[in-house]
Amino acid sequence: MTVRKVELKTLRDAHEVVMDRRPPKDANPSVWLAFRLGNARLYKAIADVDRGHHHEALYWAGYEERQAGEISAKLQAEGKPADWSHVDEQGPKPQTRS
Q1: Looking at residue 84, what is its pLDDT?
Q2: What does the chain look like in DSSP terms, one character per residue?
Q3: The whole model's pTM is what?
């Protein structure tokens, strides 16, 4: 995972950050939930900065929220609480593989 310390100015910048932060396919569903919710926040913020891509960024925010909703519903249906031990105020922490 690459950590960027730059100010995001475009939707493309946001997409690059999202791809850099993407967890492994076999990550815990709560990791994916935090990833999706963080992406939604990021895209909403970019919608206000990159006005030329405002509506597209809002689409992506909605998409990420829908994905998070599906993950959350699946966790609830399985009776599994989300594991938030890997999340802090800045978002999800990188997961190590065992």
Answers
A1: 53
A2: -----S---SHHHHHHHHHHHPPPTTS-HHHHHHHHHHHHHHHHHHHHH-GGGHHHHHHHHHHHHHHHHHHHHHHHHTTPPP--TTEETTEEPPPPP-
A3: 0.76
